[in-house]
Amino acid sequence: MARHKLDALPDASGIYIISPSSAVADPTALDRAQSRLSKMGFKVAIDRTALSRHQRFAGTDVQRLAAFSRAIKQKLPIVMASRGGYGVGRLFPSLDWKALENSGKRFIGQSDFTAFSLALLAKTGMISYAGPTACFDFGGSKTEILTTEIFCEAMRGELEILSFETADADSVDCRGVLWGGNLAMLTSLLGTPYLPKIKGGILFVEDVGEHPYRIERMLNQLAQAGVLGKQKALLLGGFTEYKLAAHDQGYNLKEAIKFIRKTVGIPVITGLPYGHTEIKATLPIGAKVGVATEKGMAHLVLDEHVH
């Protein structure tokens, strides 16, 4: 995987961490994340309810809504989710989308946070980022250097092109709005006002703990709902932590992808370094990007200045 840089833009030097979904299981992970991000040159502040707990959630709905309000009023430019899980969608009817848009913050997270990023795009057109979360990516026993470097480059405006190996890619050279994230979260937004209406886009998806038949079922649902067929390309990230069964009889992820290719008819690219994986890119949801393939490689053009 290769990255090509532009000259650095003004430093994005501050991160405010909130917990919008499930409760943080290990408070020391948040401490480690703060320490590591600080050593990377970021000023880091943790919201006062980031370690709250109510049932399975990181505090009550009221507490987590208040965390968003504090996040957009404080001065640090990047707002990062501590983790994913479940729960941010419960807040959508009560979030002040206009205030979120006017804040100019750069929101970043993954998993359950996909729902927030897509809702933000649908409601405001605002770009946010699919990328690391504090606990998973910076709070563990070690950090993945590529994830860290790409995150820093993206936040500081230095990431121009993301190139990655692909073992199974259709030929494509196109441009469109990049959008997507966790497949289950995206699919859960069908039929709601929180799913962006993107035509001619470049859709990327990933998931964890989902058998290939469930992945196929969700992609098929997106296809039959008229979403997939309107896209210029489908990028597949990591699909991890699932087990095949004896009665699958040869059915696997490759077969699921083969079915989607046949039924939808848009270019499919595998190998995107994004998902519930140690190595993950930081991707701008809602930005206009380009994607092109050559033998064994794909190139995601993330900056408007590239021609």
TrEMBL record:
<dbReference type="GO" id="GO:0008236">
    <property type="term" value="F:serine-type peptidase activity"/>
</dbReference>
<dbReference type="InterPro" id="IPR040921">
    <property type="entry name" value="Peptidase_S66C"/>
</dbReference>
<keyword id="KW-0378">Hydrolase</keyword>
<keyword id="KW-0720">Serine protease</keyword>
<dbReference type="InterPro" id="IPR029062">
    <property type="entry name" value="Class_I_gatase-like"/>
</dbReference>
<feature type="domain" description="LD-carboxypeptidase C-terminal">
    <location>
        <begin position="175"/>
        <end position="289"/>
    </location>
</feature>
<dbReference type="Pfam" id="PF17676">
    <property type="entry name" value="Peptidase_S66C"/>
</dbReference>
<dbReference type="InterPro" id="IPR027478">
    <property type="entry name" value="LdcA_N"/>
</dbReference>
<dbReference type="GO" id="GO:0004180">
    <property type="term" value="F:carboxypeptidase activity"/>
</dbReference>
<dbReference type="InterPro" id="IPR040449">
    <property type="entry name" value="Peptidase_S66_N"/>
</dbReference>
<dbReference type="InterPro" id="IPR003507">
    <property type="entry name" value="S66_fam"/>
</dbReference>
<protein>
    <submittedName>
        <fullName>LD-carboxypeptidase</fullName>
    </submittedName>
</protein>
<keyword id="KW-0121">Carboxypeptidase</keyword>
<dbReference type="InterPro" id="IPR027461">
    <property type="entry name" value="Carboxypeptidase_A_C_sf"/>
</dbReference>
<dbReference type="GO" id="GO:0006508">
    <property type="term" value="P:proteolysis"/>
</dbReference>
<feature type="active site" description="Nucleophile">
    <location>
        <position position="111"/>
    </location>
</feature>
<feature type="active site" description="Charge relay system">
    <location>
        <position position="206"/>
    </location>
</feature>
<comment type="similarity">
    <text>Belongs to the peptidase S66 family.</text>
</comment>
<feature type="domain" description="LD-carboxypeptidase N-terminal">
    <location>
        <begin position="15"/>
        <end position="131"/>
    </location>
</feature>
<feature type="active site" description="Charge relay system">
    <location>
        <position position="276"/>
    </location>
</feature>
<keyword id="KW-0645">Protease</keyword>
<dbReference type="Pfam" id="PF02016">
    <property type="entry name" value="Peptidase_S66"/>
</dbReference>
